Amino acid sequence: MLPLLRPTHNLWSALVALVHFTRADGRANYLTYVQLAATWRAAGDNPVGWQWQRAALMLAVGCLCVLVVRRVGGSAIAAAIAGVLLTIAVPSTEGWLFIMGEPLAVILLFAMVLIGADYPTATHWRGRAVGIAILAALVMLSKEVVGVCLPAVVIFIVCWSSEHGFRRPRLGERERWLGVLLLLVLIGEAWSVRSALAAAAPAAYATSFGRSGLHAGTMATLFQAMLLPARFSSARAASDWYPANFAFLALLVIGFLSSVRRAASRRDLWCWAIGLVSFPVIGAFIYAWWPRYSAFYGIPFLAGSVGLMAAAATEIQRHNRAGKWLVAVLGLVTVTYTAAVSRRTVEDKRAIANLAAAIVRSFPRQPRLDTLFMVVPRQSGRRWPVTSDELRRYAIALQVPDSAVPVMRDATCEEITSRLALPLGDNAVLNDRNPCGPLPIVTVNWEAVAPYPDPWSWRRREDTLGIQLLAPKWGRPH
After folding, report:
1. How many helices (H) and strands (E) does the chain have?
2. Which domain holds residue 440?
3. Which candidate, 398, 354, 392, 353, places its Cα nearest to that of 371?
4. Looking at the predicted structure, is the pLDDT value of residue 155 above 90?
5. Residue 332 lies in a domain
6. Total-model pTM
7. Which of 21, 102, 197, 446 is close enough to 299 for a disulfide, judged by CB 3.0 to 4.6 Å?
8. Residues 273 and 394 placed together within one structural domain of the fold
9. Are both 358 and 311 inside the same structural domain?
């Protein structure tokens, strides 16, 4: 992205460059582009400046989470736990590392909740409705997919008040006014997305939605990754019982059991549960249609999960003598062990980046390759999830001479098998640990170690990422 922005001279030219570059992918995250262009004008090539921008967004997410929980009646301890979890959970960890639109979209969602709270009884409801509609539009201009969270937020706005809790919406003048404004926003966003898709390249990322079909197993896995704070989408089901996840689930179960004998508490808690659990459910359903999932996609949907935990924790404190201490202990376990698991994410991403850097930096030192085929199995499962486009961007970012960089393209297991049946010549195959299996012979091996604390014992563990290259032009395979 930086090579794209370097030739620009002002905020507008940087924004135009980003829009033209992403248009081919079928994307229309215009508010995110404004954010990136502004950061470029402020920080330039300075990586520290970009890191401060990411940190500011993630800290804002955590602080606003605390404010939202307190605004809707959550306890101080529950709000603090929710705010910390939303900033250090496995999906959120990538928010500190990568450039994305999800944190900004979550900030705007939280702003919608704060402005919309007590809307049914507000005096100046017309102004609030306009503000809610504007924020809804900005949410989708930050990341279109996050728009699927808006129905739950709107239902909360028209059904909840601090005095009465949840009630059926009256569907009076204020509700109709808000509905008309949101319909206009929806029409505008539909036009924006349609125009972006119309301008997209045939093989654009946005056009791959739904091509692989919907798989129930994938949806169930993604739901767990969006519900639990310390769950990788690629991990085994046993990771659901990591101490962090166990303590998190314990808070949910105890909270709901605490409300069983109290009709008013039970009604409100179940309303919160249905609304908030819809976030990971809808998120899992939507992303199960995509061919590839990154952990940070789950940040907006994890917000619903931590909100559910805050509601349960508040219920425990209200109706149990030792509730405050129970919530504090379980919350501390959840936060502490989540931090341990998230540390693994940081080290894993560092190892992935180090391997990519080592590979592209080897190009100028070796005979030039014609085409580099990267093994990308259809069923996913790659340990080193870097595509050919991303590896090329690594080369550009590290200023590897374009004359030394080969043509790169992704290839399925079947395509690689067919390719290996013939002499490679000036071509090469790059492979990682994945369902396709190892290459029969190898020219170069790259390895990177990712140390991390064990989520059970806190002992140091090491995970080794390995990359194989078969390039006869670079030497005799072994």
Report:
1. 17, 7
2. 350-474
3. 392
4. yes
5. no
6. 0.85
7. 102
8. no
9. no
